[in-house]
Design goal:
The chain has 392 residues and is α/β, with parallel strands linked by helices. It is built from 14 helices and 13 strands.
Length: 392
């Protein structure tokens, strides 16, 4: 009985997620779930979902759609019996600080089914060092899976250089939607703050001051600032909405906090209004690139530096631990002055990534639909590295 109730709960969450991000698929999904009575012959996609993070939830919904409507979204800590196969890792991270790099996936790893690790990154704070003992733990952790495709070229290169079998990488860039090529317009700056990680909570007041001063600078020059919280659950220490309110209270400038529940349509409209984006979150920067909006990244994790390198905007990424508001704003002014040029560069590079990664995703779909355990064909990843001139 408990398994049946768990199945109903997970099916309902997957339905709600599809209804939010892909409404045209939602009703067919629920009908199909009722017919198949649970997870039998289902593709389970397990990742950092259901925790209130808009970027992770959106990427998961898009990946589920690309795999087909028989995919079920689960949080990384849940267990789904009787699945056809399991894809874990989307939105997740190999945790440098934990004794088990995949500790949050302990439950999903209990399944005796074909499994792949997809779009997983390194949870490496900028001040952490990747040690040999951690790499040994990663080697053991990922051996549970039939294939491994990481999140970015940084993780791909690091793990392969240390003899750890990684077959490809599927960046979140390939999993998020785009508003298409739209002209830059307006005098709006979109600001996406972040204070959710353990390390960032220790410097919360410093971050509030940083974001507040950037708002003051923008307001002084006549820019409208939209504050957009991506994380809206998890308590005040993890809630970006509470963090945004703190920033507004401290700032001498003016900004508007987006209070509505985020949907794909609403977030794309916010990007459409923006001249540039200042983001403390990886997915905030990724959506900026997809929409052709020049972005400046306030980074706390190597994943943000890796993405900036992929997009060839290395000059516009700052460590939040020592970022000076005046220096950050100088770079913002450079982005604004050359916004059109950077917009075209971002759109061109995202087009290259998506074209190549479509082949990777097609290989994963073939693996999902088959019954074999052979590794999907990820040979196009080397083509992508060369096209983007990324060090292999």
């Amino acid at each position: 009985m408990s398994q049946i109730l768990d199945g109903i709960k997970r099916a309902w969450w997957s339905y709600q997620s599809l209804r939010k991000f892909r409404p045209e698929l939602a009703n067919g999904y629920m009908l199909d779930m009722l017919r198949t009575r649970g997870f039998l012959d289902r593709v389970v996609l397990a990742g950092d979902f259901t925790f209130g993070n808009f970027g992770d939830d959106l990427a998961g919904a898009v990946l589920a759609q690309q795999l087909g409507h028989r995919a079920v979204l689960l949080s990384s800590s849940e267990y789904a019996p009787r699945a056809r196969c399991l894809l874990a890792g989307a939105g997740g991270l190999l945790r440098v600080s934990d004794s088990d790099p995949l500790s949050s996936y302990r439950e999903v790893c209990r399944q005796e089914v074909r499994s792949g690790l997809i779009s997983v990154g390194l949870n490496q704070d900028l001040r952490e060092v990747v040690r040999d003992d951690f790499l040994d733990k990663v080697r053991g952790a990922i051996s549970r899976f039939d294939f491994v495709a990481v999140r970015d070229h940084y993780a791909y290169k690091l793990l392969r250089e240390n003899g750890i079998p990684v077959h490809g990488f599927v960046p979140d860039l390939a999993l998020l939607p785009s508003a298409g090529r739209k002209e830059l317009r307006g005098e709006t700056i979109l600001l996406i703050p972040c204070a959710h990680s353990t390390a960032l909570r220790a410097i919360r007041s410093q971050l509030v001051e940083l974001y507040a001063k950037l708002i003051e600078q923008a307001s002084r020059l006549g820019f409208k600032v939209n504050l957009c919280p991506f994380q809206v659950r998890g308590g005040d220490s993890k809630d970006d909405l509470a963090f945004c309110r703190e920033i507004i209270e401290v700032s001498g400038g003016s900004a508007v906090v987006f209070m509505d529940v985020l949907t794909e349509e609403k977030i794309l409209s916010l990007y459409d209004e923006a001249m540039i984006v200042i983001s403390g979150r990886l997915h905030g920067s990724i959506l900026a690139a997809r929409c052709g909006r020049p972005f400046l990244s306030l980074a706390y994790n190597v994943k943000q530096y890796a993405f900036a390198e992929m997009m060839q905007v290395n000059d516009f990424v700052f460590s939040v631990y020592d970022a000076e508001p005046t220096e950050v704003w100088k770079e913002c002014e450079k982005l604004i002055a050359s916004a059109s040029s950077y917009s075209h560069r971002l759109l061109d590079r995202t087009s290259v990534v998506r074209t190549v990664i479509e082949e990777e995703l097609a290989a994963v779909r073939d693996w999902v639909q088959s019954s074999h355990r052979a590794v999907p064909d990820f040979s196009s990843v080397e083509v992508l590295m060369k096209k983007l001139k990324l060090a292999c």
